[in-house]
C-alpha cells in the first residue's frame, strides 16, 4: 500500500467498478450507453458526499482514454484554468472535471463559457449542492444534469467486500461490515476511510468493537434504511404544517445530525410557499434570509437560525390557496381546456384598454379565453392577509357586475 488514501487508490477506472447509481450505470443506462458509444457531453453530477461523483468522472475519462484535467473551483485559481484552456489550442478538446462547481466565480465562468460553446472543453461538473439553485444558468443550460443518490447499505457492503481483497491479511467479520455500512450513511468514501483506519489500528483483525473504537459516531435512525431520510423529511414538513413545534424541532434535529442542510433548506422553501403561502407572504423572504445566514456561518451555529425559522413557520398562519389555485389552472391545461387568447390582449393588442389610464389603474375587460371566462381558480382563505385580498377581489367583481348591467 502507498500513502494515498484508500478511496483514491481504489478509485474506479471503468464504469463497471462504480458502486451503486444503477439508474445511470448498467445495461441500457444513459451514462453507460454514452461511454459505449464513445460520445460524452458536458454534464453536472450532483448528490451527497461519497456517492460516486468523482468515481464516475474518473471512470469516463479513463475508459475512453480522453485528454482530461481535474480542477477544484475553490482550490485552483484563475491561472490554473487558463493553463487548461491554453492546452486546448494544442490538443483540441479536453474534458475538464471541476469539483465544487457551484463555487466557480465569475472570472472563471467567463473563461469557461466560450470554450464550452465551441466544444473545446467538455465539462464534467461535480457538486453536493442542487445545481438548479446554485449553478450559473449559463453553465447549467450547456450541461446534462444527473442526480446521484445516496448509496444503500447493500451497495456499501458490496463495495467493502470488493475492497477487502486489496488489503493483505485482513480479517473482518460480517457484523463489522454491516456496522460500517450503517455508520457511513450512504457515503462510500466515509466507509473506505473507516475501514482503512480500522485495518491499520487493529493488527488487521477487525470486529465491531474495533470499528466503535475507531469511530464512536452513533448510527442515525435515518441510516437504517435508504427510505428513512425521506420519511424524516416528510415528517418534518407535516409537523410544521400541523403547527406542532416540538415535533418539528425533533425532526429538524435529526436532519441536522445527518448533516444534510441542503434538504432542510429546500424543504423550508417549499413550506414557505406551499403551507404558509398567502397567509404570511413575507415568509419566503425570511426563509431565504435564514438560508443565507446558515450558509455563511455553517454548523454548529447554523442550528440557531434554523431553530428560530422552524418555530416561526410552525406558528405562522397557514394557507394553501396559491397551490390550490395553480393546480386548478394546470388541471384545465392538462384536460385541453385552453381556448384562444382574446384579440385585445394578444401580441397585436387591437382594442386593448391600458389599465393605468383609468381610475385606480383598473378597467373592466375580458382576459380569460371565452371558454373559460367565468372560471375561478383563486379562492381566498380566511386569514388576515387574504381577507384584504378578498376585499379587493369583491370590489373587482362588483365593477364587473356593474359594467355588465
TrEMBL record:
Xref: SMART domains: AAA
Q: Which GO terms describe its biological process?
A: DNA recombination; DNA synthesis involved in DNA repair; DNA-templated DNA replication
Q: Which residues form the AAA+ ATPase domain?
A: 39-151
Fetch the InterPro entries from UniProt.
AAA+_ATPase, AAA_assoc_2, AAA_ATPase_RarA/MGS1/WRNIP1, DNA_pol3_clamp-load_cplx_C, MgsA_C, P-loop_NTPase, RuvB-like_N
Q: Per UniProt, what is one GO molecular function of this protein?
A: four-way junction helicase activity
Keyword Nucleotide-binding among UniProt keywords: yes
Which Pfam families does the record match to this protein? AAA_assoc_2 (PF16193), MgsA_C (PF12002), RuvB_N (PF05496)
Supply the alphabetized keyword list.
ATP-binding, Nucleotide-binding
The protein's name is: Replication-associated recombination protein A
Q: Which organism is it from?
A: Candidatus Aphodocola excrementigallinarum
Amino acid at each position: 500500500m502507498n500513502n494515498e488514501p484508500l478511496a483514491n487508490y481504489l478509485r474506479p477506472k471503468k464504469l463497471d467498478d462504480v458502486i451503486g447509481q444503477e439508474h445511470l450505470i448498467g445495461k441500457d443506462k444513459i451514462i453507460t450507453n454514452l461511454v459505449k458509444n464513445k460520445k460524452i457531453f458536458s454534464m453536472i453530477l450532483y448528490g451527497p458526499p461519497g456517492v460516486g461523483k468523482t468515481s464516475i468522472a474518473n471512470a469516463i475519462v479513463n475508459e475512453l482514454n480522453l485528454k482530461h484535467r481535474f480542477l477544484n473551483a475553490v482550490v485552483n485559481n484563475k491561472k490554473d484554468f487558463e493553463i487548461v484552456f491554453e492546452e486546448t489550442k494544442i490538443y483540441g478538446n479536453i474534458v475538464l472535471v471541476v469539483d465544487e462547481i457551484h463555487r466557480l466565480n465569475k472570472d472563471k465562468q467567463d473563461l469557461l463559457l466560450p470554450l464550452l460553446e465551441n466544444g473545446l472543453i467538455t465539462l464534467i461538473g461535480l457538486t453536493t449542492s442542487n445545481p438548479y439553485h446554485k449553478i450559473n444558468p449559463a453553465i447549467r443550460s450547456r450541461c446534462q444534469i444527473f442526480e446521484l443518490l445516496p448509496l444503500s447499505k447493500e451497495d456499501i457492503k458490496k463495495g467493502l467486500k470488493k475492497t477487502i481483497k486489496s488489503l493483505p491479511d485482513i480479517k473482518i467479520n460480517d457484523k463489522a461490515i454491516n456496522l460500517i455500512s450503517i455508520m457511513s450513511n450512504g457515503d462510500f468514501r466515509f466507509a473506505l476511510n473507516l475501514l482503512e483506519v480500522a485495518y491499520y489500528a487493529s493488527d488487521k483483525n477487525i470486529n465491531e468493537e474495533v470499528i466503535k473504537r475507531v469511530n464512536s459516531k452513533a448510527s442515525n435512525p435515518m441510516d437504517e434504511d435508504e427510505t428513512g431520510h425521506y420519511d424524516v423529511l416528510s415528517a418534518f414538513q407535516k409537523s410544521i404544517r400541523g403547527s406542532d413545534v416540538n415535533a418539528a424541532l425533533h425532526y429538524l434535529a435529526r436532519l441536522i445530525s445527518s448533516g444534510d442542510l441542503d434538504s432542510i433548506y429546500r424543504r423550508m422553501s417549499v413550506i414557505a410557499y406551499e403551507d404558509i403561502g398567502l397567509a404570511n407572504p413575507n415568509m419566503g423572504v425570511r426563509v431565504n434570509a435564514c438560508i443565507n445566514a446558515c450558509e455563511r456561518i455553517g454548523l454548529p451555529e447554523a442550528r440557531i437560525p434554523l431553530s428560530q425559522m422552524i418555530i416561526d413557520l410552525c406558528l405562522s398562519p397557514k394557507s394553501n390557496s396559491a397551490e390550490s389555485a395553480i393546480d386548478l389552472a394546470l388541471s384545465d391545461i392538462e384536460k385541453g381546456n385552453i381556448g384562444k387568447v382574446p384579440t385585445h390582449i394578444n401580441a397585436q393588442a387591437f382594442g386593448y384598454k391600458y389599465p393605468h389610464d383609468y381610475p385606480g389603474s383598473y378597467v373592466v375587460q375580458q382576459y380569460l379565453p371565452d371558454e373559460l371566462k367565468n372560471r375561478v381558480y383563486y379562492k381566498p382563505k380566511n386569514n388576515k392577509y387574504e381577507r384584504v385580498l378578498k376585499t379587493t377581489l369583491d370590489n373587482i367583481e362588483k365593477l364587473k357586475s356593474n359594467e355588465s348591467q
